[in-house]
Write a structure and sequence with these properties.
heterodimer, A: alpha/beta, Beta Polymerase, domain 2, two-stranded antiparallel sheet, B: 209 residues, alpha/beta, Rossmann fold, three-stranded parallel β-sheet, 6 helices, 29% helix, 8% strand
Chain lengths: 218, 209
Amino acid sequence: MKTAAEVLQAIKAALPQAGVELVNNPGPSAQHSLRLAPADALAVAVFLRDDAELALDYCSNATGVDWPDKEISEKVKVTKVVDGPDGTKEEKVVEETVKHLEPGYLEAVYHLFSMKHKHGPVILRMRTVNRADQVQLPSLTPVWRSAEFQEREIFDLFGIVFTGHPDLRRILMWDEFEDHPMRRDYVDPDDYEYEPTPHDEVLKRAQEHEKAQAGVTA
Amino acid sequence: MAVEPDLKIELGKQGVFVTTISEIYNWGRKNSVWPMQFGLACCAIEMIATTMARYDLARFGAEVFRPSPRQADLMIISGTITKKMAPQVVRLYNQMAEPRYVIAMGACAISGGPFKQGYNVLKGIDRYIPVDVHIPGCPPRPEALIHAFMTLQARIDVQPLTGEARPRHLDAEAQGEFPVPEQGAHDLVPPVNRLVWPLPAPKAVETHG
């Protein structure tokens, strides 16, 4: 079985233009993955499936990950002109905290195996541009049919729109539903009005609900 | 008007059988409660076990599970009711002919159970339809379902046929159809039917500060 880096080399050899990069997993599992540029994903997927040596003919799992917007604060050293004690201007190095927002994105992850050679997994990732309006990714269902329902599930729960999917509808929630419940910023409906035996999280939610209701009626 | 038990026995010895309309009516009703053949989740496996040879629910008159709500008397809510499934459950209940009964089987059916905090699970079927017997358990054992069934039979047995507490099918004014919740943009609409799930008496809410 080739390692992720070797798979990357094989892809680069066959498709030199393809945007693929290695994403290392520093954890003990060390399952490194390949991040595909959405524009080239379909070509790379076809190569991975049809290459005689890799023959990754089975997509066992497709899932989504939500990476919310991150605020990153960095300490930067800046030289500033300040007034000296005797009235002269002098330069001084000041440390400043700079905050900037790193936009989040949605990610689709695929686990590929080879039934033919009994090896795997090779892990693919694709990222959307952002989490709001540019959430399109190419569907890999035309390459691996087993991804069909799982891509529908990702669409349902994360809101990634798979272009080229044969039948992209919600699969778990009802069609009228508008939210994407697996996103980190999802707020679930507040229907905790009366709890016969509340405890833990439910007790907290029920108390919040009760207070909100009291505020409304008062 | 009930017959005194002693007199009844005495008359029986003389070869005279005495009964009342309500007694024989309820005797017939309670011994032919046919459940609807439908399961929602893992509790359904226990329900199936209850009907099989070892526990044999047929002994109690639940002879056959009917695949059609038109022929069924009892709805056993056996399992988790997802919000996607809830409108269909209410619709099936509406399609059942009176007299009809509901047993909410297991933690999920009575309150949402371990999935209570889930966005997609209804927090108990009694938010939309009236429930006669609740059984706790995850899942309840077949004995518990049999106990619930016998509890239901006991309740049918003592039901008066006239007056305030008469069964719904003998009350022309009674509410027969229960509103089916709509699947809205964020949740079921309405989230609860207040006619069957009234709020408990308002509690004094502590206000801090």
